[in-house]
Amino acid sequence: MARTFINRSPDYKDLDLDFFRAKTSNDVSMKVGEEAIKRSVRNLVMTNYYDRPFRPNVGGHVRKLLFDNVTPLTAGFIKDAISEVINNYEPRVKVTDVNVNMDPDRNGFNVLIQYIILNRQQPVTANFFLERIR
Questions:
Q1: pTM of the entire structure?
Q2: What class has domain 41-131?
Q3: Domains of the chain: which residue ranges?
Q4: What pLDDT, in 10s, does the model give residues 89-125?
């Protein structure tokens, strides 16, 4: 008698906020698994306080810090804000490391976030560049 193993780890799903149409159902497409988590982490980092209706306390206010001078002190504040918002509002991940490096020539910060998705073994990295847009 052969044993069948079933993978019971959850497959995380989120709406694709680019609102592309799914090819098979003509509905909004979905982000699945690691890509869904990565998009959620990026959205949390870029959310300010009072951006979300009925949930004014969700956000890290990182965009406010981008208007400060590009200094090591500002990089430390951004690192703390990113860690706090992900730990508080993304229960599907555990943050292992946040690196914020200054780029004074481009007037911004390179951010590398390493985290582990729950029920998975290998770490995931999200890398993006933060700059002010006004």
A1: 0.82
A2: alpha beta
A3: 41-131
A4: 999 899 999 999 999 999 999 999 999 988 888 899 9
